[in-house]
Design a protein that fits this description.
- The chain is α/β, with parallel strands linked by helices.
- Helix content is 30%, strand content 21%.
- The strands form seven sheets. Strands 1, 2, 3, 4, 8, 9, 10, 11, 18 and 19 form a ten-stranded mixed sheet that branches.
- Strand 18 and strand 19 form a beta hairpin.
- Helix 2 packs parallel to helix 12, helix 4 packs across helix 12 and helix 14 packs antiparallel against helix 15.
- The two termini are 30 Å apart.
Length: 663
């Protein structure tokens, strides 16, 4: 535990500066949830500057967080704790956020099962990212991990325990000891197989200590941008249809991923990439959207997630011949290879005719060789899910599984402090007033492929980093710069247009066309002609947004309108994803091209580097994609920025040079 204590000290030392905590008693206040148009703060004013039909309420805050999942809650109460007057805008009640669905766990080199070192975790994350991850951000995340988990435990998160009372850690994919040479690591701290549920409720409970203003069931429409600076957010109160402008010095986006751009995914129906789309409409880029993770084990037919923890506890994947086929593809890690490797291996087995079922179109995950007691204590949720969605008793029969869209490695580009960045004239530039964290952001700690159980870590580390950065650079109560009276006019005009849209296609029809196109043309394996056809189809589907028909003309709790706004958001994410994938002529991490099977780096790392000439930037693909969209036409423009290859402190933790990736 000494190493954990040392790591805990980091929370108040180095990297991002220390902030003075406000005692809980001083901020007790009432627990405020606003479902009303005026909210709690006396400063809210009603204006008709931008619309006479829709009442517009103006609020002023030091900081606004959009989203109340793991990252949003951690950022919001971190800001409140530092004394900032903070609003948290969320389209769902906080505990309904998709963080609740995470199962496997949260990685941290605590060393409870064997000796461990955060530098080994750093190495595994860089290797997992296929050397597309930014190593300064990976350094920050993995070094902070042990302290972040201890902090969660102090907040009351009920981790599973070992016999001697320490936090139990299970094996998870892509995790090794001694820089890949020491075998499988047990690094994943869990709460049985309901870790996300436990994390979200713990963070939510903790957040109630602070005087954060929650605006629940408010749908964020757009960022309020002026001269390249973010001045806040405009949102729709779903309950009464009023429009709210939140003016703020600091805006944090924590809106999650956009899994629902695909037909089959493990994401909630609310995972519609709202934050990415808001940033896109503000003329800022998204980064690396072509990298979409397919989780190897979604339930066949239902798409529900079956955690990697099953394989961490000893479960195995088998084909129609009863063979444990992963031994052929990843002789060392076997079923616990990286997710992209396992998904591709399963897809190859099915293609080569070794799938199971009448259509031979899936494989089996076998757990019934494990003791029933172990299944009951470590995987209770999975046993229940398998029975409900597949009709399978895991103690007696295997679960039918198939790779399913699960996570977006790409998102809003940020640095390791959570500040949103753009890349101009060969240098990264910070966008003033704008931050992002969680799945919506791309720091990029996951690069081309995320390791299992690094996502919950990403949430708490970078949610906290956003709060620390804001506290370092601003003071509570700073005077807000003036906002143009007409700010947000376009958002209200768009809302009105959609509310009265009278074309020929329902929202659900256009959404299905988009999802089917993405599922067929940007899947586990991708090829040039299929991607090109997908780009053309997606461009055509994008144009059909002009022919929308909505049915509910009301304004109170208009789900038809909200789903249509979400469709607009999904569409912006989808076109960027497929165009970025079509352009990337290589295979790296989750992006597997059958016509370009190799990774294209600045050197050929399969051979000695001596005597090799470095390829120019425009001839290799070890670089981040930056994508922009013109929302009116749907035209995608692509640019590129280099990967950050140095850690935060080369003495303490040397960077990992690229190598051939095998498990």
């Amino acid at each position: 535990m000494a190493s954990v204590r040392a790591a805990s000290c980091l929370l108040s030392k180095r990297i991002l500066s220390k902030t003075k905590a406000v005692p809980a008693a001083a901020v007790q206040g009432s627990r405020n949830f606003h479902f009303s148009i005026y909210g709690k703060k006396k400063s809210a004013k009603v204006s008709d500057d931008i619309s006479t039909q829709y009442p517009v309420v103006d609020h002023e805050f030091d900081a606004v967080v959009v989203g109340a999942g793991g990252a949003g809650l951690r950022a919001a109460f971190g800001l409140s704790e530092a004394g900032f007057n903070t609003a948290c805008i969320t389209k769902l009640f906080p505990t309904r956020s998709h963080t609740v669905a995470a199962q496997g766990g949260i990685n941290a080199a605590l060393g409870n099962m064997e000796d461990d070192d955060w530098r080994w975790h750093f190495y595994d994350t860089v290797k997992g990212s296929d050397w597309l991850g930014d190593q300064d951000a990976i350094h920050y995340m993995t070094e902070q991990a042990p302290a972040a988990v201890v902090e969660l435990e102090n907040f009351g998160m009920p981790f599973s325990r070992t016999e001697d009372g320490k936090i139990y850690q299970r094996a998870f994919g892509g995790q090794s000891l001694k820089y890949g040479k020491g075998g499988q690591a047990h690094r994943c701290c869990c709460v049985a197989d309901r870790t996300g549920h436990s994390l979200l409720h713990t963070l939510y409970g903790r957040s109630l200590r602070y005087d954060t203003s929650y605006f629940v069931e408010y749908f964020a429409l757009d960022l309020l941008m002026e001269n390249g600076e973010c001045k806040g957010v405009i949102a729709l109160c779903m309950e009464d249809g009023s429009i709210h402008r939140f003016r703020s010095q600091n805006t944090v986006i924590a809106t999650g991923g956009y899994g629902r751009a695909y037909f089959s995914c493990t994401s909630a129906h609310t995972s519609t990439g709202d934050g990415n789309a808001m940033v896109t409409r503000a003329g800022l880029p998204c980064q690396d959207l072509e990298f979409v993770q397919f989780h190897p084990t979604g339930i066949y037919g239902a798409g529900c997630l079956i955690t990697e923890g099953c394989r961490g506890e000893g479960g195995i994947l088998i084909n129609s011949e009863g063979e444990r086929f992963m031994e052929r593809y990843a002789p060392n890690a076997k079923d616990l290879a990286s997710r992209d490797v396992v998904s591709r291996s399963m897809t190859i087995e099915i293609r080569e005719g070794r799938g199971v079922g009448p259509e031979k179109d899936h494989v089996y995950l076998q757990l019934h060789h494990l003791p029933p007691q172990q299944l009951a204590t470590r995987l209770p949720g999975i046993s229940e899910t398998a029975m409900i969605f597949a009709g399978v008793d895991v103690t007696k029969e295997p679960i039918p599984v198939l790779p399913t869209v699960h996570y977006n490695m790409g998102g809003i580009p940020t640095n390791y402090k959570g500040q949103v960045i753009t890349h101009t004239d060969g240098a990264d530039k910070v966008v003033p007033g704008l931050y992002a964290c969680g799945e919506a952001a791309c720091a990029s700690v996951h690069g081309a492929n995320r390791l299992g159980a690094n996502s919950l870590l990403d949430l708490v580390v970078f949610g906290r980093a956003c709060a620390l950065t804001i506290a370092e650079e601003h003071k509570p109560g700073e005077k807000l710069s003036p906002l143009q009276p007409s700010a947000g006019e376009e958002s209200v005009a768009n809302l009105d247009k959609l509310r009265f849209a009278n074309g020929n296609l329902r929202t659900s029809e256009i959404r299905l066309n988009m999802q089917k196109t993405m599922q067929a043309h940007a899947a586990v394996f991708r090829t040039g002609p299929v991607l090109k056809e997908g780009c053309d189809k997606m461009d055509a589907v994008y144009q059909t947004l002009d022919d929308l028909k909505t049915f509910d003309r009301g304004i109170v709790w208009n789900t038809d309108l909200v789903e249509t706004l979400e469709l607009q958001n999904l569409m912006l994410n989808a076109v960027q994803t497929i165009h970025s994938a079509e352009q990337r002529k290589e295979s790296r991490g989750a992006h597997a091209r059958e016509d370009f099977k190799d990774r294209v780096d600045e050197y050929d790392y399969s051979k000695p580097l001596q005597g090799q000439e470095k390829k120019p930037f425009d001839q290799h693909w070890r670089k981040h994609t930056l994508s922009y969209v013109d929302p009116k036409t749907g035209k995608v423009t692509l640019e590129y920025r280099p990967v950050i290859d140095h850690s935060l402190d080369e003495q303490d933790c040397a960077h990992v040079p690229p190598a051939i990736r095998s498990y």
